[in-house]
Amino acid sequence: MSSSCESIPVLYIKANNNYDVGYKIGQTFKHFIRDHLTSETAKSLWSFYESKDGRKKYADSLEATRKSYPNIIEEIQGMADGSDVSFEKLFLQDMVSEILLHYSHVSKDVDNTDREVAGCTDVMVNTESCRLIGHNEDWSPEVRDGMFMVNVDLDKGTPSETVKGNKEVNNVFASRNERYLANMFPGFLAGNTFYVNETFAVSVNSLVPVSVNEGAVPVDILLRALIGCVSIEECVTVMKNEPVGCSFGINLNIASRQSANMWSLEVYPDYGKTLVSLREIPYSDSAVTDSYYIHTNHYKHVEKAKESPVLEGSRAREETAGNMPVPAKIQDVCSVLGDTSSHIEPIHRVPGKSFNRNSRTTTIASAIFDMNNDLLRVYLNNPKTSKYPSLKLPFV
Fold it and tell me: I need a surface site. Which of 19, 99, 195, 227 has the fewest CB within 10 A?
């Protein structure tokens, strides 16, 4: 594909069970998935799986997931069957944060000089004239040509129930209907990049805590479950996942479609416990600093979070965005997401343009959720210099 051609496939699915959703994604994007499983990232995951310790951690994570969300296991199995690859290889994709950012110590050098972490940058604006989430999806170039969108109507034929306690959450979500528009990378579940359902728009940032909760459910599995949430209280409940817990850390930036509420949610594994911190972004009728919020790849509101010191670039991106005026329109947010001014690490990332010259992390896409107009814009090139988005879709 030439540099002047911009293309994002969109798959529309109507199904009545998770297996069929996964199968159709796997069947349609079989080439993307099989190609990605030859990448260096996939090879690293498989190498971990082939070790004695890796096999045990895989088995423990799989058992925890089967007990908590068997419907998501069915979705992964469907994707594996549809793309004609092994279930093990796809489940490993959904352990990528735990394996590459912790177990394999990919984010650390032996001399304690930390490497850059693939992460993302989020900008939230909660004002009357400009209510939106802007998100840079930063990842390895391996996935650039395999990215796609899914528009899913999962109707299980059951009435919607409300979660009333931690003990009920798994059963309720297993039978809950879902309607969502999500960005996906090949072989991964929906939910770990950005999406919108009937209640929320959500974007996701990597975090790098120093510990994992052994034997808990992988964070990407819980991110997939989160797509079914219909209240912010459910979001907190799903990410806590009591009594088993969430295995790793993550940041979610959430905008309500039904009110003026916006939140930043941080998940922190604390040696067997899962802490979830929620910070509200206040609404304003004018462009004020309190209604402008930036989140990159370090903890901001979990107190005393212990995290990898691999955060020089993350803090540089936050500082750059924070020094810019409060956005008053969509183009202002495009200018933030497309900024390349930092000599430490630019917000719009290009391989080698960072304090770590060996980094391959790049901005794969930029997304803007326009909450006032129920519209998603996705840019494959720098949004600051792009005349039009590569894709523009209404919310579900």
Answer: 19
Q: Which amino acid is at 357?
A: R
Dihedral angle of Cα 20, 201, 102, 93, to the nearest 10 degrees = 20
351 falls in which pLDDT band (50, 70, 90)? confident
Residues 125-179 pLDDT 10s: 999 999 999 999 999 899 989 999 999 999 998 776 766 656 577 778 888 999 9
Q: Where are the beta strands (DSSP E) in the chain?
A: 10-15, 121-126, 131-139, 148-154, 178-184, 194-197, 200-206, 250-256, 262-270, 273-280, 292-295, 362-370, 375-379, 391-394
Q: What b/e sequence results for 260-286 when a residue is b if at least 16 CB atoms lie within 10 Å of its CB, and e otherwise?
A: bbbbbbbbbbbeeebbbbbeebeebee
Give a yes or no: residue 213 inside a domain: yes
CATH number of the domain at 173, please. Answer: 3.60.60.10
> What does the block give as tokens for 145?
């040509």
The pLDDT tens digits for 28-74 are 999 999 999 999 999 999 999 999 999 999 999 999 999 999 999 99
How much is the pLDDT for 103? 82
The whole model's pTM is what?
A: 0.94
Q: How many CB atoms lie within 10 A of CB 259?
A: 9
221 near 147, Cβ under 8 Å?
no
Lowest mean pLDDT among 84-88, 101-105, 257-261, 330-334: 101-105
Q: Which domain holds residue 353?
A: 114-394
Asked if residue 46 belongs to a domain, the reply is no
Residue in the block written with tokens 């995951």 = 45
Q: Is residue 104 part of a domain?
A: no
